[in-house]
Amino acid sequence: MERGEAEAKMLEFIKKLPDEIREALDFDVPAFDFSEIAHVVFAGMGGSAISGDLAKLHLSEVPIPMESVRDYTLPPYVSEKTLVFVSSYSGNTEEALAAYGDARERGAKLVAVTSDGKLAEMAERDGVPLVRIPGGLPPRTALGWLFVPLVKVFEVSGMVQGKLVELERVADYLTELRDEFSTPDSPPFELASRLYLRLPLIYTSRRLAPVGFRWKAQINENAKAFAHVAELPELDHNEITGIKNPPERVEEMWAVFLVDADDHPRIKLRVKHTQELIRDSVLGTEVLESKGETPIERAFYLVYFGDFVSFYLAKFYFEDPIAIPRIDELKKRLANEQ
Ligand code: PA5
Asked: Helices in the chain by DSSP H: which ranges?
């Protein structure tokens, strides 16, 4: 695909997020008896894994430990009392398939979320509940389809209420934002122009870490650019001292603090002081405040903003935002070495 065409397609895919959220609200998902569930694991990689992180954020009041696992094997506590979601957009990612096998061996309750591939085949063969989502997109642009079903399982099981209505509002809010964000000179365009040719540092509170990680991954995959992510308060206990050497590199860094009204008051204070203390070493720092009424609206405001930043950065670097040749090549090489 020619770069211009890939650019137009990626813009269309990014804009589609609110539509995906709306569509996914109608997907059929299984219900579970949560009195039998002691822990929840979201297994998957890359563009599929982020859905589990965001589900945890939206379901933060559910009093069950939840963990995202980006690996081949599951934690030792996984048993028949664990609900394991295995998400893989393609259905062929080897770590996700291994996690599925591990969950089966340990008798965990399973849900597979995929568009196709071996994961769909295995789930059908094993009688595992399968949420089959539409295919044909780069996985990282299928976030709405991947994320909503995870939340919906909790709602149809009676573990939470009103979470899907909140997602309907998220979809409406993102629809309002998409025309603004799609135009050059929009806030994401401006931020991307500040990050261009610089080394982005993306800083968030621990609660918003999934959003920071989404920014990093989108900048990596869409713009083929380096980005670093870290969390407050932890970074104030180590990284803050490291933002000094080597000076020629640190002087090319641009720190973006993604902040939210719900951040702990001490985190807000830390953002202010951390910025002041690193300001003389890096090229620039800035704070981007989330907007929206509910916590999940504000998290998705930042996710959407970052998706557009990565799109504009790809444009500035003349990169095809769809192609991910190194990831494809790596998957091919590993597939040839079983
Ligand atoms: O965005 C991407 O293409 C990658 O990060 C993939 O999501 C990742 O390699 C995992 O593949 P899949 O989502 O198909 O399981």
From this structure: 3-15, 17-24, 46-58, 94-105, 117-126, 143-156, 163-181, 187-195, 209-223, 239-242, 247-250, 265-278, 295-316, 325-335
Grade residue 338 by pLDDT with cuts at 50, 70 and 90.
confident
Residue at 125: amino acid letter = R
Residue 114 C-alpha to ligand 1 middle, in angstroms? 11
Predicted confidence band of residue 121 (pLDDT cuts 50, 70, 90): very high
Find out whether the beta carbon of 47 lies less than 6 Å from any atom of ligand 1.
yes
**Ligand 1: which atom is nearest the Cα of residue 221?**
1
CA distance 36 to 29: 18
Q: In Å, what is the CA distance from 71 to each residue of 94, 95, 97, 98, 137? A: 9, 6, 10, 8, 23
Per residue in 221-239, is it b (16+ CB within 10 Å) or e — as a string?
Answer: bbbbbebebbbbeebbeeb
What was the pLDDT predicted at 74?
98
